[in-house]
Amino acid sequence: MQDLDEQQWRDLLQRLRRFALWLTREPASADDLVQATVERALSRRTQQREAEALRAWLFTILYRLFLDTKRRERLHARWLSWFGRGSADDPALGDNTEAIVFAQADLKAFAQLSTEQRALLLLVSVEGLSYKEAAQALEIPIGTVMSRLSRARAALRGLTEGNPAPAPLRRLK
Q1: Cβ contacts of residue 154 below 8 Å, gap of 6+?
Q2: Which terminus of the chain has fewer CB atoms gathered within 10 Å of its CB, N or C?
Q3: pLDDT (0 to 100) of residue 87
């Protein structure tokens, strides 16, 4: 990243905060988002090549972080509702027997997955880790993460939609 003087940084941070505030509608969340944006930009400063594109690059980072946060919040809200602890805005499952039955069926199907599949789904879908971060956490190649995750999603979809996946065939010698 290029070297900016103090006034340029202040102007840029003010613009980022204004955009973040518009997105989040909460001053504290906007400040956190700007801080995360600057942190990400500084840690990846070698990726930004053109000095003129710095502002656009920072806004792109901020917006993507915002989207990632919202996506993670929706996933967490869904998992919390499955466990009967809905948020104040979200009605708890306690009043809806059908929703409880479906949630229990989904959790039962999830429990039927292999340990590796459950770990990958939790890390990527619930915790929001990237494929690369999940690969590092599990100490496996990224290609393995992608293929196992695909199979895990297909298996879970099959179990929850009533079409269980056939048992994998093993080659015997």
Answers
A1: 165
A2: C
A3: 47
User: What pLDDT digit, counting tens, does each position of 30-74 carry?
Assistant: 999 999 999 998 898 777 666 667 888 888 898 889 888 888 888
Terminal C-alpha separation, the chain: 58
- Architecture of the domain delimited by 1-90: Orthogonal Bundle (1.10)
CA dist 63 and 88 (Å) reads 26
- Segment 84-97, tens digit of pLDDT: 544 445 454 455 67
- The angle subtended at Cα 54 by Cα 53 and Cα 56, nearest 5°, is 65
Can you state the angle between helices 97-112 and 142-160, rounded to 10 degrees?
A: 140
Q: Do domains 1-90 and 96-167 have the same CATH topology?
A: no
Right CATH for 96-167 from 1.10.287.130, 1.10.1670.10, 1.10.10.10, 3.90.740.10: 1.10.10.10
The tens digit of pLDDT for each residue in 112-121 reads 888 778 878 8
